[in-house]
Batch of 3 targets.
Target 1
Amino acid sequence: GESVGLHLPTLSVQEGDNSIINCAYSNSASDYFIWYKQESGKGPQFIIDIRSNMDKRQGQRVTVLLNKTVKHLSLQIAATQPGDSAVYFCAENPNNAGNMLTFGGGTRLMVKP
Amino acid sequence: ETGVTQSPTHLIKTRGQQVTLRCSSQSGHNTVSWYQQALGQGPQFIFQYYREEENGRGNFPPRFSGLQFPNYSSELNVNALELDDSALYLCASSFANREEQFFGPGTRLTVL
């Protein structure tokens, strides 16, 4: 498959450890944020979202934290597995209407067995 | 799998040519968005279609155009291809007024 993210920042973690991926967003008016996972040769896959009236949201093995003061978003993955290896993108909705997303640059997560 | 399909999977064109990429939305979704993803970068929003009308556009020139059909499938057309148009083109479908978008696998366009 094709390679996504040849020049992206890389986070390397041991299988079973927790992973934290960070993202800075640009528009203080954005009120909706999403994390996507993209594996090689595939389109982005929705992981978890959060609205600006929340600071934290939990899913299955994933947690998203939102700090609006510094416009920072993070994705925490618990007990990281080899299947979590992928490129992770944060995205924001800067228009507060419709579904037009602005994506960040992405982080490659590599899980060592 | 999201239920969003795109064709073709890969395409090679030369500068100056025109290309049409196709997308079939997930069942029941009436909004389609197109994104361009250059190698090593995040997707960039091209435009969105809702009920066959363009409903927003990113910073792309007019030679990028689109269509949405009554069955909500969509086309992306690019005229006068340039080398920098080489990228993965993604479409995403959603319900109007709901932000969660479901992406297709993309079409890899190479312009020589």
Note: Chain B has a mean pLDDT of 93.
Target 2
Amino acid sequence: DQQVKQNSPSLSVQEGRISILNCDYTNSMFDYFLWYKKYPAEGPTFLISISSIKDKNEDGRFTVFLNKSAKHLSLHIVPSQPGDSAVYFCAAAFSGTYKYIFGTGTRLKVLA
Amino acid sequence: GAVVSQHPSRVICKSGTSVKIECRSLDFQATTMFWYRQFPKQSLMLMATSNEGSKATYEQGVEKDKFLINHASLTLSTLTVTSAHPEDSSFYICSAQHQETQYFGPGTRLLVL
């Protein structure tokens, strides 16, 4: 049973436009969420996180939104750049355990 | 900061041999490290949680005698794949806990012939 889902396996966006990556989770007890970026044959790189006490967290071009009632989070990248092309994983955790459950990933392609 | 290294980055071995993979936190101490496995085009699957000075906690379905984990210091955890078989071929990634975030190593590609 997949507790964290990324329903879009891939996404293509024009350079300069907004990229929106979505993630849904089933366990309402998750209270810490993260986004990672991964290039082929490399480990994931931490991008941004959000605690369940917030509904938005921003870091430069990256903003994560959390909708607890819908059990949904999204990552917005504005403006998108070709270097953002990678696979993006969302992860959910119970704070204090640090054990992450990862989604299946979304491959983002930013077209120049 | 928060850099994690893994060694080797790639290893090819014969079926039946054992392979050791090292995971090091380079600029911080990590009491907790994690080992993941990733199959092509799939998510990262947590194999085990490695705690410094104590036994690792394995996820359901992961054979502890097959995947030996040692976390002997605050900066080093090792994963040994014992008696490797072709089905163990995969991409193994470690991470180290730093404050509230896991930082990942670059991964190790294991190919068992």
Note: Chain A touches chain B at residues 32, 34, 36, 41-46, 49, 89, 95, 98-105 (CB under 8 Å).
Target 3
Amino acid sequence: DAGITQSPRYKITETGRQVTLMCHQTWSHSYMFWYRQDLGHGLRLIYYSAAADITDKGEVPDGYVVSRSKTENFPLTLESATRSQTSVYFCASSNAGGAGYGYTFGSGTRLTVV
Amino acid sequence: GDSVTQMEGPVTLSEEAFLTINCTYTATGYPSLFWYVQYPGEGLQLLLKATKADDKGSNKGFEATYRKETTSFHLEKGSVQVSDSAVYFCALHPNNAGNMLTFGGGTRLMVKP
């Protein structure tokens, strides 16, 4: 199906484990983004990518790693999960046209680190 | 840098009440402005947008007018329903070569029957 999909929808992991959140989009949008959403903090940008093999840090990148070997995929890896990374994670994509189009968001991954 | 300021929530209204959620922005040039809605347990969805001054965006009974003189993009609806209960985010895009949206902090709306 066309769209932007995130997996898994829910994840519980233990402190210190590595976990990868997946994001896949079918529009060939050049830009992709990862946000985390926490009560009292709104949306905070973790990493973004302007194209395949081009990534850059956002507001809160520490503890996270991204890669983008293909335009359609933008996985987010927590190398050693901590309780402070318990959050809801949203992936988004955008047309390179930028202005006037905004972003399209996935449904989110709720991650709990115990 | 660019910024978006929304009114603090939660906003609690009775069904059929009039809604206003204030949004003001700071940006150089002529940004595009957006309202997104997030229903419980879901991602953000684009609700409406306006790309130039005096444009009015509208969707699902919601409206917002791009007011450059007051740097505002307030969201309004004449008669809210329980199903409108959600978090609303105002955002701007600077219309430059980059592709970054700046979001406000979000306003939670609760509509009671």
Note: The radius of gyration of chain B is 14 Å.
